[in-house]
Each structure stands twice: as structure tokens, then as C-alpha cells.
Specification:
The protein is of the alpha+beta class. Helix content is 25%, strand content 46%. The radius of gyration is 22 Å and the shape is globular. The chain starts with a strand and ends with a helix.
Length: 220
Amino acid sequence: MINVILFSLAQNNDYSLKRLVDDLEMVTQDDTQGIHVQEYDDTFLKATYWQKKYRKGYRYNIEIKDFEVVEEEIVNIADFGIQIFEGKLLVFGNKQMAQKIITIIGIASKNSYVITEYVINIENLVKRICKNKDIELIKMKLVDITLDKGLLVNCDVNLLTQDNPNEIVMKYISNIVVISFKFEKMLSNITIYKSGKFSISKIDIEDKDEMIQKIIEITC
């Protein structure tokens, strides 16, 4: 699964993405980290942040018949995208990598962008999902379902087996803490948590740009 973290982004002043791309090259010119920009124009940017680290480990040396310390190079990457009109920054990775991306953008742009984590209201989001005819509901997790007086249970619901999944979802919307779905003609499942976290099953490279756009659309 791939974690997706969504941020709100706003320009403090007239600082274009083209200028950001130029300035990013100035602040990431070393061999420990960098940003590779794939595409951009005045309204969107698609890029990859990479970070190089060295990790020490042990390896058995047959010749000396003992373990020796070895150092291996590890490169971590996180794809991200900026959509100016929608005011969104999406990071495909963990919070640590996301924070590094935000920090670099802040340094390069001299804090010309205000970036804050996007707060998701899962009930409003579920309502938009249910109204979208191009979305197939897969499953959900419910908490605090009343079975009897003083008896509450949590449960997982397979929505693929329900005759009217939208009706079931709306009935228990206030109890949803996790919901999974997929967009029509895409194989990847998207899971949204009440905490605001997104996760996506393995994405086909050809669908990634469209997936990003669809996620932004349902969260706007």
C-alpha cells in the first residue's frame, strides 16, 4: 500500500511554479538529497523527492571467518504533486518525507507558500463518494454499532456483497472510521481513514496522474 498525505497550499505572493522549479535547483545541489521535476506549468507540478542515506550492517566474511561491518547506500523516494487552482499538495510517502519536501519548498521559495495538512471530514467525503457514479464501494469499518442496550460492537462490512451499498453506507455514515473504494476502470483500491490518512494499493503508472486528479476532485 502507498500512503498519500494531502496538504492545503496557498501562495503568499506572486511566486510562480516556474520560479519555484528554478529555485529548487539552487537549494538541492548536493549528493544527499534532491528533487527531480517531471512536468510543470503555471498551474501544476509533478516531481520526485529523493534522499540518500548510508546504513551500517553486518556481513559474514568467509575468508576471515567472522562478521564485518559493511555500509550500504539506501535511496528513499517520494512522489509529489502541486495543483495551484485546487490549492493542494499531494505527497506519496510518509510524514517524514512529506515534511522534508515542505521544508525544501519553504527554503527555495522563501516561504512564499503556506502549506498545512488538509483536514478531512470523513462524513462529508463519504457523501461525495456516494454521489459519484464512477466510484465502486468495496468495504468499510464501523465502530460503536448498537446491538442491545449497553452493547456496542465494531465490525467490517463487505460492500461488494450488498444489494444497495450506498444505502448501507449512508445509514451508518456517523459510525464509519475506514472506507475503501475504487474509481471506474482503475484497479487500485483507495482507503480513507477517519484520521485523514489515505492509502492506495499499487498504482499502475499510466493511471497515476488521473488518480491524483480524481482524489483532488473528491476532496475539494
